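Review this:
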Amino acid sequence: MIVIGITGTNGAGKGTLVEYLVTHKRFVHYSVRGFLIEEIKKRGLPMDRDNMVALGNELRRDNSPSYITDCLFEQAKSAGKNAVIESIRTPGEIDSLRRNGEFYLLAVYSDPKTRYERVCKRGSETDNISYEEFIAHEEREMSSTDPNKQNLRRCIELADYSIENNSSIDDLHNSLEKILLNILAK
């Protein structure tokens, strides 16, 4: 079983990579965001990015820095199929996934203005924000010395592979295909 983790900033193309892996490569998708959304619904909290971040930090603090991805990995292990875990946010998640088997981390990045335009088009419950809020959220999530809080900068640095996503979806898919060839050749 191969597990691919996807990290990157909001709107960089994580979901597009996941969609390709699921549709064209038969990977099973596990989402940190989806995990948090379900927990927010159970708790009856408003659905916004602030609550998602706070809840993720709380779950990591109360359990372990890798708690959410550990839960998702256990689901993937039970299924026994190649898996993609979307939205890796802490170095502890990466460390835990690397200890659990054949794991590769992909980082996807893109220009902030491009990402903001994508987020506006996507229009999910947590995406209806101004550009200033978008940038403020990103700054909050980029680094922390607390192992239970998001540290995207470090996650991106720890990636096995990085993809710049400032052009077409076809270019993004082609970059992913090259990475998959490299992974499968190992």
User: Anything to note?
Assistant: Residues 2-184 form a domain with the Rossmann fold fold (CATH 3.40.50.300). Strands lie at 2-8, 28-31, 83-86, 102-109, 161-164.
